[in-house]
Amino acid sequence: ELDPDGCLRSLARALELIVQLDAGDIVGDTVDVFPSPKPARTIPFTPDWVNGFIGINCPAETQIAILEKIGCTIHEGKIAVPGFRNDLEDKADIAEEIARFYGYDKIPATPLQGLADGRLTETQQLQRQLSETLLALGCSEVQTYSFISPKAYDKLGLPPNCDERRSVVISNPLGEDTSVMRTTALPSMLEVLARNQNARNESAALFELATVYLPRGTEELPQEKQKLIIGLYGPDENYFSLKGIVEQLLARTGIAGYDVTAATDREAFHPGRTAKLTLDGKKFALLGEVAPAVQANFGIGTRVYVAVIDFDTLLNKRSAAKLYRQLPRYPAITRDLALVCDAATPVLALQKAIESAAGALLEKLTLFDVYTGSQIAAGSKGIAYSLRLRSAKGTLTDEEADVAVKRCTKALEKIGAALRIR
Q: I need a surface site. Which of 39, 40, 49, 98 has the fewest CB within 10 A?
């Protein structure tokens, strides 16, 4: 939109040029037949509001000087806007002009007021971390219903009076198959694995952050706890495949210092292929092969491996700190230990003995062989470890490495493990 007041200014300039160029003479006065001239637009002058809107502290006198530069006049708290600035319609437009002349680089960076500081909670962060880690390890996430059939406990082979059979009963269930709230997510995972195996999927690796419901009487709502359950089967899967996934998951969440021991008291799991994980003396995870009878009850025709991990323990014991170490300055020395021990001796016990005896010199401990056969006495097994030793103070000598290895062999002898080759 053009400024109607600009016609008179343009006419005056044209006449001025005619006189200067001696191209004619000015005769008479100006005739103005504008039928309805508009009054000058005014906007309230609010310097405090402008400062608050922009987030600056510009004095009123400076704001007046800026506005006069663009043709405005200020009188009695009103800004008279020139006709050629049709874009100035509100005090926000005035604030824009003040900011432009004041300098965008001088406006401090401050967070907007009145907005929520949105971010993920610690629980949500861990849930996302677990999901991303398991997806990266080749697992797929599933979601199952929280209500199940009471017959699922029979399929698991649970004793009649065990705590896991004490479920919250739904007063208006859709049917018997959905009549109680689950106290364990194991039936839900086994049903999904069975459905995949019966659909001729050669292999499957699944996980779920499942909620279980533990009753607290008729007057209170049940306790809701989250469990991370992982299930897999396939020609290339075994107990160690599942154990590797769990170890990677715990390492990713910063869980360390846990113990792995055999578990033989779980009805749904194979007594010789199941382990429990404890931290500070408390069990927080169970992993192993599902018992053959339970596999048959759920209609699964292959070996199935399942891990159940307590989410609260991961949340409370995890370490979000990431520690970085500089690259080693001095070379390492490698030593191998070939041991013979009782077949029932846990490998973890041997590992802890070596780590404790070697101390700070032990940089890495690798189990690279487990042997049972004709060359080993009945009831025994052969274990082979590789030790990588390094000193942070200087080049490690062979004598220092030998002393560390001797400490390890003495510690191993105390728990019944002897060197196989002396």
A: 39
- Residue 220's pLDDT band, with cuts at 50, 70 and 90, is confident
Sign of the four-CA dihedral 401, 407, 411, 414: positive
Q: Which of 293, 361, 34 is CA-nearest to residue 156? A: 293
The span from the CA of 214 to the CA of 162, in Å, is: 13
Q: How confident is the model over 260-306, as pLDDT tens digits?
A: 888 887 789 998 899 999 998 899 999 999 999 999 999 999 999 99
229-265 confidence digits (pLDDT tens): 999 999 999 999 999 999 999 999 999 888 888 888 7
At 231, is the secondary structure helix, strand, or coil? strand
Q: Which two tokens stand for residue 228?
A: 């991370």
Q: How far apart are CA 48 and CA 54, in angstroms?
A: 10
Measured in residues, the chain has a length of 422
- Kind of pairing between the strands at 362-371 and 380-389: antiparallel
Structure tokens at 319: 């370490």
Secondary structure class of 366 (helix, strand, coil) = strand
> Residue 217: how many CB atoms within 10 A of its CB?
7
**pTM of this prediction?**
0.68
Let me know if 93 is exposed, middle or buried by CB neighbors in 10 A (0-12, 13-18, 19+).
middle
The terminus-to-terminus CA distance of the chain in angstroms comes to 101
Q: What span, in angstroms and rounded, lies between the C-alpha atoms of 416 and 422?
A: 16
Q: What's the farthest any 2 CA atoms get from each other in the chain?
A: 131
Taking the C-alpha atoms of residue 4 and residue 7, their distance in angstroms, rounded to an integer, is 6
Percent of the chain having pLDDT more than 70? Answer: 98
Nearest to 253 by CA among 121, 394, 130, 146: 130
